Amino acid sequence: MSIGGLRAVKLGGDATVRQRTRRLASRTSAAVTAGLALSWYEFRMNWSLANRSQGVSDAILPKAPPAAEAGAAPAARPAGKPVWALVIPWDTAEPGGVSQVVINLAEALRDNGRYEPVVIVLDWRATGRVEMRDGIRHLFIGLRTPDPSGIGRLGRMRYAALGWFEARRFQHLLRVLDARVVNFHYPGPAAEYLLKSRERARYSILFSLHGLDILESVRKGPAERARYVRMLAEGDAVVVVSHAFAALVSDLAPELAGRTRVVHNGVTPRRLRAGQPPDIALPRRYILNVATFEAKKGQKHLIEAFARLAASDPDLHLVIAGRPEGALPPLVEQIRALGLEDRVLLLRNVPHAQIGSLFASASLFCLSSLAEPFGIVLLEAGLFGLPVVATRVGGVPEIVRNGENGILVEPGDGAALAEAMRRLLDHPEEAAALADRLRRRVLAEFRWPASVARYVALAEQIDPVAAAARLKPSG
């Protein structure tokens, strides 16, 4: 019995193990089958998107003659100016400073005449679109971030395969364009695809940093920081918008020492002055602030400052125009708590075509930022002859010189902002003199043609095709 009992227990244990093994095998098979089905679905979807991306190439190239040999290299773009590809991760129609930089840079490149600008938008929602905007081609393609975190091994393999497929399409597009400069604005990890390409010697890769791009990567942790900085270091050059921002980048990423170049942003008077009227009626007298509704813009300190002025100046209003972000709800609550609902106007997502009208009707401009790599809105305020109060942060002092063409105060100080604004409102002659000096400086030193000339000079220095030609023996 004892032997039989033991034997029965053993057989029962084996049966249990076999049952568990079969269940595990069944689940594993189901998971693999589901994974393969998802991979096939994503492949078919990606193939469809790739065909739409191919349509982008077909829209650029002339049709090949019928006698063309099968397997021949793709036709080249008709001979002309080399292409400067400006790559941005969202549609330039979306409001924001980076969008305006790309639009103005593209127009100034076109007017410069050395390169043909083409804007490439990495936007999955519009893959395959080709648009002409103000005479500049905009091409829309999908490109996923390589090597994502937070997914399993099978998912990473699938993701990598599809990413490789998309990257090949991107490289094909650059080859069709015969791009000489690939200029990433607000660069993301997708640029890694080009750095690893066999065709890397065809073009130079130029990274243009605008502030949050590198700061967000650094905040994600050491691994993400190292990866992002390595990507930037493998490019040919990194452009930053101010000397102050260059110093910050050097502190964040000493590996980039010697690779950064400062090119200030500019302003296009024609585009701003031809603005459309706003959709709503504006107050007769108002202080203007144009900035995204985010904590680093310091708008809560501006509202605090305005509250100090409001009681003694009942005709004065505050107008803040920007893209909605996380700081907007607390600002609304702050305005309500101060009883300023009828005195403070918050304008969300104002089209850039209407921004000029906001500047044209304002009495004073105030930039209350706690951090600001450059401050292109200060150039716009200067262009419209507005007296300016701003905080002494980042690249702001490279535009506004305290007591010479505006007033600078320390960041986060609502009382100092109020005092400076009251001074300019109470002394219109001084305000007008400061504003005139700022306007003359903006027109003399911060125009897009001058900025583009610096970009072009940098591109000529790092052009791999020209470098190869210089090394080629004569005769």
Radius of gyration: 28 Å
For the record, what is the CATH homologous superfamily label of the largest domain? Glycogen Phosphorylase B
Q: What best-fitting shape do the alpha-carbon axes yield?
A: globular
Poorly predicted parts: 1-13, 30-50, 61-78
Level-2 CATH architecture of the largest domain: 3-Layer(aba) Sandwich
Describe the structure.
- The longest helix is centred in the N-terminal third of the chain and has 59 residues, at 2-60.
- The protein is 49% helix and 15% strand.
- Helix 1 runs parallel beside helix 3 and helix 2 crosses helix 15.
- Residues 1-13, 30-50 and 61-78 have low confidence and may be disordered.
- The relative contact order is 0.09.
- The chain contains 16 helices and 14 strands.
Provide a quick synopsis of the model:
The protein has 475 residues and is an alpha/beta fold. 49% of the residues lie in helices and 15% in strands. It has 2 domains: 83-262, 3-Layer(aba) Sandwich (Rossmann fold), CATH 3.40.50.2000; 269-446, Glycogen Phosphorylase B (Rossmann fold).
Outline the secondary-structure elements.
Layout: H1 2-60, E1 83-88, H2 97-112, E2 116-122, E3 130-133, E4 136-141, H3 153-177, E5 179-185, H4 192-195, E6 204-208, H5 212-219, H6 222-234, E7 237-240, H7 243-252, E8 260-262, H8 269-273, E9 285-290, H9 299-310, E10 316-322, H10 328-337, E11 344-348, H11 352-361, E12 364-367, H12 376-383, E13 388-391, E14 407-409, H13 414-426, H14 428-445, H15 448-462, H16 464-471
Parallel strand pairs: 1-2, 1-5, 2-4, 5-6, 6-7, 7-8, 9-10, 9-12, 10-11, 12-13, 13-14
Antiparallel strand pairs: 3-4
Helix pairs in contact: 1-3, 2-15, 5-6, 9-13, 12-14
